[in-house]
Amino acid sequence: MKISRELSDKIQKVIDEFVADSELFLVGTDNSEEKVDLRKIAGEINTLPIAFDWFECWGITPSKEIILFKYEKPYLIKTETNQKIINMVLSDTAKKYSELKELMPIRNPESIICPGCDGTGINKEFAHIEVLAKSIRCNCGGVGWLPSADQKYLYF
Ligand SMILES: [Zn+2]
């Protein structure tokens, strides 16, 4: 994806700040008790970590590519192609880093309001239980809408 030099520089600056932060950011790997420092990995693969799973994480690169990587070498970096996941990561990035708010995904004519949350980003089933509402993501990833009504986006 072609993005402006200016935006690319902004993403790079946030990555550099994340990597330079002196506070350890420990994450676990699936075949070792040992924890690794996510800031070190972020520096090695020049990626800003955004959305976390157990042993892997989605992040964004300075070229606005969304990748999934594991916490241990060789990190098994995979380019994310599912638009629903891409939107989730972009939305999380824009919410978390105000200087990157222009990354917020924009709805297009095919996109639909998410049936799981009616557009709020919080799954209806869990909305009344605060701890679950915060910890369990809606199928839309918290974006509130889906890229289209295609079956592949309707479920996890
Ligand atoms: Zn939703």
What does this structure look like?
By secondary structure, the protein is an alpha+beta fold. The protein folds into 2 domains: 5-102, no CATH class; 107-156, no CATH class. It is built from 5 helices and 8 strands; from the N terminus they run αββαββββαβαβα. The strands form 3 sheets. Strands 3-4-5-6 form a 4-stranded antiparallel beta sheet. β1 and β2 form a beta hairpin. α1 (5-20) runs antiparallel to α2. The protein is globular, with a radius of gyration of 16 Å. Zinc ion binds next to loops.
- What's the domain count? 2
Distance between the termini: 25 Å
Provide the list of bound ligands, each named once: zinc ion
- CA radius of gyration is 16 Å
SS-based class: alpha+beta
Largest beta sheet: strand ordering = 3-4-5-6
Main beta-sheet strand count, sense and barrel state: 4 strands, antiparallel
What would a concise description of this structure say?
With 156 residues, the chain is an alpha+beta fold. The protein has helices at 5-20, 38-45, 83-96, 130-135, 151-154, and strands at residues 26-29, 32-37, 48-52, 56-60, 66-70, 78-79, 112-113, 145-146.
